[in-house]
Amino acid sequence: MYKALADAIKDAERDKKSLAQVALAAESRDQGRPVEDIRAALQRALDVMRSAIEKGLVGDLYSASGLVGGDAAKLRTSAKGPLAQTPFRDILTRALAVQEVNAAMGVIVAAPTAGGAGVLPAILTGLAKAKSVSDEKVVDGLATAGLIGAVVAERASLSGAEGGCQAETGAAAGMAAGAATEMLGGTPSQVGHAVALTMQGMLGLVCDPLGGLVELPCVFRNATGAAIALAGIEMALAGITFAIPVDEVIDVMGEIGREMDVRYRETAGGGLAATPTGRRLAKERLYQIKRSDG
Amino acid sequence: MVSLLDIIGPVMVGPSSSHTAGACRLGLLARGLIGGTPQSGLLQLHGSFARTGEGHGTDKALVGGLLGFRPDDERIREALQIAEREGLDYKFEKVTIADAAHPNTVRINVELNGKKATMLGSSLGAGRIMVQEIDGYPVEVTGNLHTIVLVAEDRKGSIARITGVLAEHDINIATLRLSRKERGGDAFMVIECDEEPDKKAGEELRALDWVRWTRRLPKVSGG
Description:
The structure holds two protein chains of two kinds.
Chain A: H1 5-14, H2 19-31, H3 35-58, H4 71-77, H5 87-103, E1 107-109, H6 119-130, H7 135-155, H8 160-163, H9 165-183, H10 188-199, H11 218-237, H12 246-259, H13 276-292
Chain B: H1 4-7, E1 11-13, H2 17-34, E2 40-47, H3 48-52, H4 58-66, H5 79-85, E3 89-95, E4 104-112, E5 115-125, E6 128-134, E7 137-141, E8 146-153, H6 158-168, E9 173-180, E10 186-193, H7 199-207, E11 211-217
Parallel strand pairs in B: 2-3
Antiparallel strand pairs in B: 2-4, 4-5, 5-6, 6-7, 8-10, 8-11, 9-10
């Protein structure tokens, strides 16, 4: 797989191909698997993503601690808010839905991780619905997202314990923005700018979940991450460019992650987890989980 | 090498790829070690597994793995109740294994029909795992392929014999790692195979009189 997005973009431009095609060819070469095989696996992932969204929209799922759940349904049915009945609102709702399913131990696709699993399906399926995009194109989007995630894994990190939330939902938002930009007709170079424009907005974000659980604020971070990705997509498709090359943005995300104090890397030692209320809720709710498990 | 399908995947029961999917895979490997659902399982949790495991369903995922559930199996949610029904007597302990141990580490002690096995493994993130120790022997097993681990006397031609047995059973070797502590000391082999080694291949390896110990481990991750 590619270690720099710039190389993938160069190859795509030279061969007049999409980044999805370039990514699928590289994966096929690396793994010795036919492209059709890889596409079939991505289609299965898409099916799981869709079914997670459907389950999450019902609003009857709650996490073990009871700290999160039911909010996707609230957003789905609310008539208030400036984004009501827009694709933007639908995408935020979908992001919450997947993460509520995840927190309730439902089946999701870790993309790139379970904690950031809401952003990519929300953006791709939400935009596919709004713009009548075929499944084939959405699967292409997953391939492009995989390429972006692989480059982030190689150059920085995809783990909150290593790099903070910027490495999980930040990477997820970058993947989703790049994938959607291509899905909606953007050029390979616009994909690069979409990733950079999105990830710059997530730099420095800490991983500070209450009690160390993938619940709060993770569920909401997926919705806000999707919102930032939408901003990146919108700007890139308008032809806006970001002066710092995308690979350098990814590198600096890794650097910030390594510099981040351990309190801000999934240990519940800092950030929201260490607020007075955060500490109190974690203590009460963890006790409750222990009791209910007997 | 990073694969697209590692990034867009795995399909798994939430909420955490390291605390849930990885834990389930470690349970599956321990099940593989004794060849079925154990009658008893002592699960010693270290670090973050001990601290936040309950909220992440690490307990359910580990027991689910021992029951043979894969990371995407929704029965993981009810794994503790199912274990009681199926006669798997499990027990959890919070321990400190070593200062250097990875934060998500578990020692799994299983027993089936008088046969015992112990495995020490960690969940590294994004569902990836690493088994560091089996029955006291140091190993490195990722579960990405079918694996044979083997301890033998360090003698000439041993690799040729072992690979010969595997070839006879039509098993292709993907990777082979050999290490020893000293010349003439025990040789440790970790052999990753493309095909699943059958029981007979395992028995033939064990029958070689200079092979001290061998185990087969199932493939629990990868596409």
